[in-house]
Automatic annotation (TrEMBL):
It holds the Pfam family N6_Mtase. Residues 90-292 form the DNA methylase adenine-specific domain. One of its GO terms (biological process) is methylation. It comes from Lysinibacillus macroides. InterPro entries: DNA_methylase_A-5, DNA_Protect_Modify, S-AdoMet-dep_Ade-MeTrfase_prd, SAM-dependent_MTases_sf. This is DNA methylase. The lineage of its organism: Bacteria, Bacillati, Bacillota, Bacilli, Bacillales. PANTHER family: ADENINE-SPECIFIC METHYLTRANSFERASE, DNA METHYLASE ADENINE-SPECIFIC DOMAIN-CONTAINING PROTEIN.
Length: 309
């Protein structure tokens, strides 16, 4: 904790100085600090700080910067959700991770917080690619990946256009929710809306499957109303053809400011000829984190589901 506080203090102090002196945003001040640290002009390092200490300190500095003005769709993925996603990645890939690395992609990588939370949890066992359209966010992701020494290749582009990425074993993604404005690009997708604009979150699911190996897994933080909207029939049909739903895990309502922002973890597997559909789909609700007994029951349910796979 002490390392996190010290590192955050130094980074935040620098960011506030830059914000004032250069009349810029606090978030740009954080980026300036990280890039100066990487260039060796400043040194924020703490003698025994772990990769998680560094990520958490940067996360708090970014959160503070974001509180001063950021669109809801740019919000970083909080630790609670990142750690739960990481837990499921760990469960599903447990056997493989004992003897080999996996390749992962986050096509909406933002600040990199979700991806790097998962990578730190599985330290040394993941190589990753991130895609992000926003210049400031991707630079924050690049700097955080560099200071935490995680191997991430980053591409700044619209993730719904062609990617220079080989198929991956796993996708993690906190889906951007809403309409996708480029109707010409939407036409390349099976999930293009038959009328009006297409949902970006649907197209992101299809694009993620396009870049996943057969039998690979996808871990989405998706709006809770994903299977319950006017375009969801099309999504159901598409998924039946290309993917198997492995799990839908509802998250505690208390995490979200209001009902429209509620999310679930949706785990898919890309279909493969030599594999079979799952015997059982895990449908569960994560209890309130303070309720230890209910939490233990939740993890027991996941364990039984995993054993039955
Ligand atoms: N997991 C990220 C993190 O921890 O910072 C947050 C992801 S945020 C919910 C969704 C991200 O998708 C935003 O950073 C947004 O800029 C990005 N995005 C939205 N549309 C995009 C597109 N067409 N191509 C690439 N990135 C996009």
């Amino acid at each position: 904790m002490e390392n996190i506080e010290k590192l955050f203090g130094l980074l935040n102090e620098h960011a506030e100085k830059i914000e004032k002196e250069q009349n810029t945003t606090l978030l740009e001040g954080v980026l300036d600090g990280l890039e100066a640290w990487l260039d060796g002009e400043l040194d924020f390092s703490q003698p025994d700080a772990t990769k998680e200490d560094i990520r958490k300190a940067i996360q708090i500095a970014i959160l503070k910067g974001m509180r001063k003005g950021s669109q809801p769709n740019h919000q970083m993925t909080p630790d609670t959700l990142g750690l739960l996603v990481g837990y499921f990645v760990e469960q599903i890939f447990a056997e493989r991770l004992e003897h080999e690395k996996i390749v992962m992609m986050d096509p909406a990588v933002g600040t990199g917080n979700l991806l790097l939370t998962v990578m730190n949890l599985l330290d040394g066992k993941v190589e990753a690619t991130g895609v992000e359209v926003d210049e400031l966010l991707i630079r924050l992701a690049a700097a955080t990946a560099d200071v935490t020494e995680q191997p991430v290749s980053l591409y700044r582009q619209d993730a719904l256009q062609d990617l220079l990425v080989n198929p991956v074993d796993a996708v993690v993604c906190d889906l951007p929710v809403g309409y996708y404005p480029n109707e010409d690009v939407s036409l390349n997708y099976e999930l293009c809306a038959t009328e009006g604009m297409s949902y970006a979150h649907h197209l992101f699911i299809e694009q993620s499957l396009n870049y996943t190996k057969e039998g690979g897994y996808l871990f989405f933080l998706a709006p809770s109303h994903l299977f319950d909207s006017e375009q969801s029939k099309q999504l159901h049909k598409y998924l039946q053809k290309h993917a198997w739903i492995q799990a839908i895990i509802q998250l505690p309502d208390s995490i979200f400011a209001n009902k429209t922002l509620e999310k679930s973890i949706v785990i898919l597997q890309k279909q493969a000829k030599e594999l079979k559909a799952p015997k059982e789909v895990l449908l569960a609700k994560v209890p309130n984190m303070q309720n230890k007994q209910a939490l233990a029951l939740f993890f027991e349910k996941v364990r039984l589901w995993k054993e039955g796979k």
